Amino acid sequence: MESCLHDRYRERCHARTIDPGQVPEEKIHHRIRIDMTKVDHFVEFINRPYFYQDVSYGTKFLKLDSGETIEMPNVVRTVTRSTMISQYIQFCQEKFEPLSRTTLFKILEVRQASQRKSLQGLDNTAADGSAGFQKIEMIVDDLEKERMNRQWCAEVKERLKSGKRYLKTNYRVHCNPEEALCPDHCRKFSLSDEQDPDFQEKCSHQHTENCNECQNLRNVLDEVEDKIRGPFWIPYGSEHRDDLLYDFKLAQRDIFERKAHIVLSVDQEAAKQDQLKTISTNQNCALVIMDWAMKFLQLKYREKQSDWFGKRGLSWNISTVITRDPNLEGRLELRSYAHLFDACQ
Questions:
Q1: Angle between helices 81-91 and 101-110 (to 10 degrees)
Q2: What sign has the CA pseudo-torsion 279, 282, 285, 286?
Q3: How far apart are CA 259 and CA 254, in angstroms?
């Protein structure tokens, strides 16, 4: 109590001799509305097909502020949120000013997607490419057991992991321009057939740059092949070297096919976006996409062994029609149709 009275006395003395002071002003914090142009730019980037994978079963319902409910198919996010944001920031360098990382994470939290738990129905090319990296790592382990340098084996494994991560994440972003100075990123050069002139398209520029990540992937594969062929290890039999070399060639082919498939998917998505722009301005046009969805196996209540073994099944094909509906104020209308076809036909 005495200390409080002493403090008040000092305050009064300070007011009489110097200045009574002023009440501190309260700072008013205003909420800043997010620029919808930047939001649309980010949403358009994350809607690309190599970030998500459709699920053949299950739907979700999205309720809008107007009360309208939209039915959407389930999707699985194939990359992490931090990787998507890092790629987007790299994509926007010197071209577009993106939103902050915190805001981008909040947008991805609102846009929910299922976690990949079941590995059934994976893309064959993607699965074989991933298995190719694992196979080469197993070959390096075999070389290490046969008196290969351990430090070299550890470095090769790290370089293989870096190459696998690059194909899964940043390589798609690098292939986004149609014409790039690097031959590994130029879609016109990569998708042209060397032997058939009808499937060739010449580039209007010179390929004067090299990608360090793409070159690292080729170099590490060449080094592994040289080690297998060279006298740097001791095989336990005459056929051991041939077996490792055969497995390496298959794994190398799967990895390069995975890389080519990524370039093809980026080019197909760019063509699809161009067609959607044409449809949005022309009411008499429509885009029809037909794709194989999954295998449908018939199931009976009681089946004999002769009915179960050798079941051929039916192919489930999905046809998607995208048109412009004048009743939707210029927006695009999406309709899907499922068809069952005999697998033997």
A1: 130
A2: positive
A3: 9
Contact 173, 199 (CB under 8 A): no
DSSP code, position 192: S
How far is it, in rounded angstroms, from Cα 163 to Cα 222?
13
Q: Which residues pair with 77 in a beta bridge?
A: 52
Q: Which amino acid is at 218?
A: R
Distance CA 26, CA 43 (A): 37
Instruction: Supply the pTM of this predicted model.
Output: 0.66
* Residue 308 CA: distances (Å) to CA of 18, 82, 138, 294: 99, 45, 37, 19
Collapsing DSSP states into helix, strand and coil, what is residue 330? coil
> What does the DSSP assignment read for 289-324?
EEEEEEEE----SS--HHHHTT---EEEEEEEEEEE
Contact 265, 52 (CB under 8 A): no
Residue range 215-256, pLDDT digits in tens: 999 999 999 999 888 887 777 777 888 888 899 999 999 999
> Residue 166 corresponds to which tokens in the numbers above?
């690059």
In a 10 Å sphere around its CB, with 0-12 CB exposed, 13-18 middle and 19+ buried, how is residue 226 labelled? exposed
Residues 288-335: tens digit of each pLDDT: 877 776 666 666 667 666 666 666 666 777 777 777 766 655 555 555
> C-alpha distances in angstroms, 83 versus 62, 77, 101, 252, 294?
26, 11, 12, 26, 29
Q: Are 175 and 185 in contact (CB under 8 A)?
A: yes
What's the angle, vertex CA 38, arms to CA 33 and CA 44, rounded to 5? 135
Tokens found for residue 210:
């090299």
